[in-house]
Amino acid sequence: MVELNDLDALETALAPGDVACVLAEPALTNIGIVLPDQGFHEALRELTRRTGTLLVIDETHTFSAGPGGYTAAHGLEPDLLTIGKAIGGGVPVGAFGVTEELAARALAQEDADYEDVGGVGGTLAGNALSLAAVRATLGEVLTDGAFVRMTALGELLAAGTANAIEEAGVPWHVTRLGARSEYRFRPSPPRNGGESATAGDEELERFLHLYALNRGVLITPFHNMALVCPATTEADVDRYAERLAGALEELT
Predict the structure, then answer these.
(1) Could you give the C-alpha distances from 124 to 101, 118, 119, 239, 240, in angstroms and in order?
(2) 118 with 80: CB under 8 angstroms?
(3) pTM, whole model, 2 decimals?
(4) With b meaning 16 or more CB within 10 Å and e meaning fewer, what string describes 41-52?
(5) 32 in Cβ contact with 61 (< 8 Å)
(6) Position 121 pLDDT exceeds 70
(7) Which CATH number fits domain 7-141: 3.40.50.2000, 3.40.640.10, 3.30.420.140, 3.40.367.20?
(8) 73 to each of 39, 59, 65, 168, 192, how far by Cα in Å?
(9) Measuring CA to CA, which residue among 28, 34, 63 is closest to residue 188?
(10) What CA–CA distance (Å, rounded) separates 33 from 36?
(11) Which residue in 18, 9, 96 sits closest to 57, CA to CA?
């Protein structure tokens, strides 16, 4: 494992030329939102190409960055891309994509059994319900227009959260990833997962979640992430910020 934004460590790990692929989120999410440094992805792509290493970008959580996820929003060039159940509105499903060049290399192996080992066949694939959910979600719900609206509300949510934090005078910061935003208990954004982990406070998080829940706002049960969905309204965003402001007033 190599920490995000540590290009020296990444170069050292890839130098022997024996790494088949780098699997990376374009921005971290499970440890709190941690964004890549400017120029990180360009350097990541250059290093992997130089060492003959495939680059796999996992958009399972970073799909919130817009249609096509962080990859499309920032013009990344992975060899493979993976995405999870968000494209099916939560119905169990996943998908992956590959470049034409990589697909040609894979299909050139005539004796490879991709139908069973690759999950594109056999008893666990060809799920009509999952595919119908994907078609409905991408065609009717998570459209380009919906992302424009969600991203705008995401900006409003992040601004309201930051304003509540500033008004309370607590040393926290807010980070946004398209329609997703999160605040962490430190004055500046972390640059990697290790730094973000040290910014956690389980007792404080439980208080903030319970305070909001007791006042009609249910948020995700881990850290302080909020994600705007197509049904979110401006009133929802305002209510969220108001509950946070109330909690901070009691804390301080």
Answers:
(1) 28, 11, 7, 42, 40
(2) no
(3) 0.90
(4) beebbebbeebe
(5) no
(6) no
(7) 3.40.640.10
(8) 15, 12, 7, 34, 21
(9) 34
(10) 10
(11) 96
Contacts for 124-127: CB closer than 8 Å, 24+ residues apart: 127/93
Residue 220 has pLDDT above 90, yes or no: no
DSSP letter for each residue of 165-187: HHHHT-S-EEEEETTEEEEESSS
- Decide: 22 and 77 in contact? Cβ < 8 Å: no
Rounded CA separation 165/251 (Å): 11
The ranges assigned to domains in the chain are 7-141, 144-251
Alpha helices in 201-233 (DSSP H): 202-213
Q: What are the structure tokens assigned to 131, written together?
A: 């595919």
Distance from C-alpha of 63 to C-alpha of 97, rounded to nearest angstrom = 14
Partner residues linked to 56 by β-bridges: 23, 80
How far is Cα 101 from Cα 110, in angstroms, rounded to an integer?
16
Q: Among 89, 92, 11, 19, which Cα is nearest to 44's? A: 11
pLDDT given at position 216 = 93
Q: Look up residue 213 and give its two tokens.
A: 């829940």
With beta carbons less than 8 A apart as the criterion, state whether 137 and 88 touch: yes
CATH number of 144-251: 3.90.1150.10
> Cβ neighbours of residue 204 under 8 Å, at least 6 residues apart?
185
Mean pLDDT of all residues belonging to the chain: 93
User: Which residues does 95 contact at the CB level (< 8 Å), separation at least 6?
Assistant: 82, 83, 87, 134
Tell me which DSSP letter residue 37 carries: P
List pLDDT tens digits, range 19-42: 999 999 999 998 999 999 999 999
Run of H or E residues at 107: helix 100-107
